[in-house]
Design a protein that fits this description.
By secondary structure, the chain is an alpha/beta fold. It has one domain. Helix content is about 50%, strand content about 15%. Helix 2 crosses helix 12 and helix 11 packs across helix 12. The protein is globular, with a radius of gyration of 18 Å. The relative contact order is 0.15.
């Protein structure tokens, strides 16, 4: 699989594919026309920590066709390279930043939505039908994911033969599924979108965009989901620093 130009994120020792929405739309259009299997992932501090601590996760990211700049700290560190053309914030592409532009993807006719509960999944399917009029959009809920449900999802995808798959099982489950199943899945563009399915459906409230541009979206998520987010906000950055320090010491 060919990849777009990768750039290293200073300090974090990982690579990403800095793109703005029009450039991602162009890449997706090429992938849809090509018809082969592609992956689109995103980097935030959580994914960086997993990349540095898990071999399978790292391999998936290294082989991915696109790794978007998702989290604000990752974006800001990349911005220090001076490689941005225009405002650095234009390169921050969380899933909900580019999903509304799917109507601009050339040749996109079949979309599959995998993940979230039945209500949220159906809501996201309905929303995508308004974003991409005329497209065949189908959904497979992913609540209480287990090996049996995973097998059923793989079979369902083979029946649907989508061109674009939005995989929203949360990190790291969605990435683990791609590690296990990518070779057995039908050709398509597989996009790990986290909680975007619930956000598209309106089940989960999006942070105001001005908060995201200030890098304070974590505060919004912490307010809404304190138990789920607290460790990532207050604990995981220390784990990341420990991992980075260990890598530097081993090199010396």
């Amino acid at each position: 699989m060919t990849t777009l130009e990768r750039q290293q994120i200073p300090f974090l020792e990982v690579d990403a594919t800095p793109l703005r929405v029009p450039e991602l739309v162009e890449a997706l259009s090429r992938y849809i026309q090509d018809g082969s299997t592609r992956t689109v992932l995103g980097h935030n501090l959580h994914s960086v920590t997993l990349t540095l601590s898990d071999d399978g996760f790292r391999t998936l990211y290294e082989r991915s066709d696109v790794v978007l700049l998702d989290g604000a700290p990752v974006l800001w560190l990349w911005g220090r390279t001076g490689n941005a053309e225009g405002p650095v914030m234009d390169y921050r592409l969380g899933s909900t930043d580019w999903l509304p532009a799917l109507d601009q993807v050339q040749g996109l006719e079949r979309i599959a939505v995998v993940g979230a509960g039945a209500e949220a999944n159906a809501g996201a399917v309905a929303r995508l039908k308004t974003i991409v009029p005329g497209a065949n959009v189908s959904g497979f809920p992913g609540e209480n994911w287990n090996p049996g449900l995973e097998d059923a999802a793989v079979q369902w995808l083979h029946r649907q033969r989508p061109q674009l798959v939005l995989l929203g099982l949360g990190m790291p489950l969605q990435e683990e599924v791609l590690q296990r199943r990518l070779e057995a899945l039908p050709p398509a563009v597989y996009c790990a979108v986290g909680g975007a399915i619930e956000q598209l459906a309106g089940v989960q409230k999006l942070a105001p965009r001005w908060l995201g541009r200030l890098g304070l979206e974590w505060a919004w998520r912490l307010l809404l989901h304190p138990r789920r987010v607290a460790y990532r906000v207050f604990g995981e950055p220390w784990v990341l620093l420990w991992l980075l320090a260990g890598r530097r010491l081993r090199r010396k």
